[in-house]
Design a protein that fits this description.
- The chain contains 9 helices and 11 strands.
- By secondary structure, it is an alpha/beta fold.
- It has a single domain (5-180, 212-238, 271-291), classed as NAD(P)-binding Rossmann-like Domain (Rossmann fold, 3-Layer(aba) Sandwich).
- The strands form 3 sheets. A 7-stranded parallel sheet has the order 3-2-1-4-5-7-10, with helices on both faces. It has a two-stranded parallel sheet with strand order 6-11.
- The protein is globular.
- The chain starts with a strand and ends in an 11-residue tail after the last helix.
Length: 292
């Protein structure tokens, strides 16, 4: 099935806008579904849509005549809303998007998951990393409403992926912190990025010193809806390197001395494996924080 029109939910946001621009550059017609007023000028069409309302999602997707959908319209952290609101919004909006796609015969879907599905960043307990590099089979131990919700929406995707009816190709993307070049410069440009300095500050261990440039976040989403997956697949979507200047093997020995190492890491290679995305999506992140 050819893809001509792609719906992006949450296209007013940082990643959503970048995805719409990526789609436009590759010849797709783009439709932004988001709550409230339009705050971007890159999509071909815009429909105001409350993604927590099943009828509005179905109506906007039907009106768009989409061939594929990329769902980025989720609450990005647990700090701005009550826990139940964050959980309900992220899980139910995913369900509504996939249910509407199923009813409308939309074959390809991409859903925004998060590194937090593993249980990092917003929890009192440290993340339970059992082996390195982390891959898609790594155990998930979420504890806060945001993390539990991200894990739950992957389960929703898995359920829809088992159905005989569309969407037949569903990708969940586990994003870390996604940043613009300016944001990377502000955070890392003037800091000592040696493992000694960063580890003392307690910054980065739980999320394996991961990050992603927004342009790479957009490209993997496009490749995900272009892929012909057999049901639902989860992919890590992180940069190919760490946020440190220290070689990764030295990072492992200093920060994770008691954790099982599945294979040798070289150079400044990421501690989260992106081999699955490379093999199944043909994706390769292009931007390092050191480039900007």
């Amino acid at each position: 099935m050819s893809i001509d029109t792609v719906v992006v939910t949450g296209g007013n946001g940082k990643i959503g806008r970048a995805i719409i621009a990526e789609l436009n550059e590759h010849g797709y017609e783009s439709v932004n579904l988001a709550r409230g007023k339009r705050r971007e000028d890159v999509s071909d069409r815009y429909y105001t849509t409350d993604l927590t309302e099943a009828g509005e999602v179905y109506g906007s997707l039907a009106k768009s005549e989409a061939d594929a959908v990329i769902h980025m319209g989720t609450i990005p952290s647990p700090v701005s809303h009550p826990g139940y609101v964050t959980f309900e919004s992220n899980v139910m909006s995913t369900y509504h998007v996939l249910e509407a796609a199923n009813a409308l015969g939309i074959e390809n879907a991409c859903i925004a998951s998060s590194i937090n599905a593993m249980g990092v960043a917003y929890q009192d307990e440290p993340s339970q990393i059992t082996y390195l590099p982390v891959d898609e089979a790594h155990p998930l131990t979420p504890r806060d409403p945001y993390a539990i919700g991200k894990h739950a929406l992957e389960v929703v995707c898995e359920g829809f992926g088992r159905m005989a009816s569309p969407p037949h190709s569903i990708a969940s993307l586990r994003y870390p912190w996604v940043a613009t070049g300016e944001e990377l410069r502000e955070r890392y440009g003037s800091e000592d990025r040696s493992v000694d300095a960063v580890d003392r500050a307690g910054s980065g261990r739980d999320h394996c010193f991961s990050y992603l440039h927004v342009a790479d976040a957009a490209s993997i989403a496009r490749l995900a809806i272009e892929a012909d997956l057999a049901g639902h697949e989860v992919f890590w979507a992180v940069a190919g390197d760490t946020t440190l200047e220290t070689p990764t093997q030295d990072v492992v020995e200093q920060v994770y001395p008691e954790i099982d190492i599945k294979r040798e890491v070289t150079g400044r290679e990421s501690l989260i494996s992106i081999e699955k995305a490379r093999k199944q999506l043909g994706w390769e992140p292009q931007v390092s924080w050191q480039d900007v």
